[in-house]
Predict the structure.
Amino acid sequence: MAQPTHSHHETISQLTKAFAFPIAAYDGLVDQFIKELDEGLRVEDAMPMIPTFVYELPTGQEKNKILSLDLGGTNLRVCRTTLAGNGEFDIVHKKWTISDELKKGPGKGLFAWIADRIEEFLSTSCQNDHLEDTYPLGMTFSFPCEQLDINVGKLINWTKGFRGLDVVGHDVVKILQDCIDAKGLKITVNSLINDTVGTLLATTYKHPGCEIGIIFGTGTNCAYLEDQANITKIKPTAANFKSPTNQQLINTEWGAFGNKSGALPTNDYDRRLDQKSSQPGNQLYEKMVSGLYVSELTRIVIHDLAHSGELFAGTAKTAKTDQELGDLAIKERLDGAMMGAFEGDTSANLDVIDQHFKSHYNLDTSLGDRETIKHICQLISARAARLSAVGIAALIKKRELLAKPKKIIVGIDGSLFNKYPNFRQHLEGALNEIFDAATVKAKISLIHAEDGSGVGGAIAAYLACKQLHKI
Ligand code: BGC
């Protein structure tokens, strides 16, 4: 990463140290990651490693028209997917941003709002579909749930800033079904999956052989195919002990890596972000890797520098007050898309950054300020990409996938991976450093999962119908 020419050198070099993640640190962290993945398969109270009730992957030949919904960290989408076989599909969907009131208000209100949106989707986008029987719907829900069946899952805790405590510990499928029934809609929620499971299913539909599904978006997580015999925390008497395929998908909830071990190389900014978060001490890996948090880290750093008179200080070199900084002084008011726009600004004078700070915060920036801001984004996003590679490498090593003759297909979705400038390049660069470039090229294929959550939800609903012999 080149040092900017006009910016504040001392500041930059301190930040570079704080957010450094040296090559020498990879091996130890990958080993620790494998240890925590293994521990989660053996005992509760470790990385969640949640057994799902999905035992098989699609063949790509499935055909049907299916509804799904996708509740992520930022948006809700309701989708109608036509699975056409040969890995082909067509998807019609409608998307709504989830407001702060809904995220932070009671969970029951959020679910009632979702049922309203399903009704709206049916009346605007499915007028020509004849819903004579009760229609199956696959629910993709991007939060940790303890699954008790393919269509039963108790919310363990919210992540990504959601707060509806009234639904924690309750079955989210039942809550949604009750809201749907109250509206008299002919829909049965027949499956519940995590977005990473959806990503894995959707990638496998198009690219048979995929065994790993990952989200690098608002949050981060990973699902993969595990041998049933390795999941020793499932008691032999449990309903999901016997898998017809001897395998089952595991929702790792890897955002929890490092919570207990303290293995992550956190700095003072990370610790402050964690302390001010809705769940201090939780999701520590996610807090260094995913979109919601990398943009918040960036805001904290910029805010600090403005307070100490190192940014936006003008020729008079005056420090800014919170009142002058407006939204920049408020938690989570700088989002991942803005951060991506700063890092992606390649104009000579960094005009995008200039305009943004003027119009959003009424702040004038010098060229040095703008270079410093861009550099902060680069440092934080590059560290996130390197740590992301650590998770991928850990799973590949743990499953000994390099020893298998076939190419390793990793399905990945999420805004950070799909849209953030250079994230994918940094991630691939880090994989080259962990393994080596020739091995990565020959053996590892990172595939952007096309609409993992929406299509994956539809495939899960299809597989659930198949399990019940309804297809
Ligand atoms: C949630 C996961 C989810 C991930 C990506 C995390 O905050 O705990 O369940 O898969 O975000 O959306």
Q: What stands out?
A: The two ends are 54 Å apart (CA to CA).
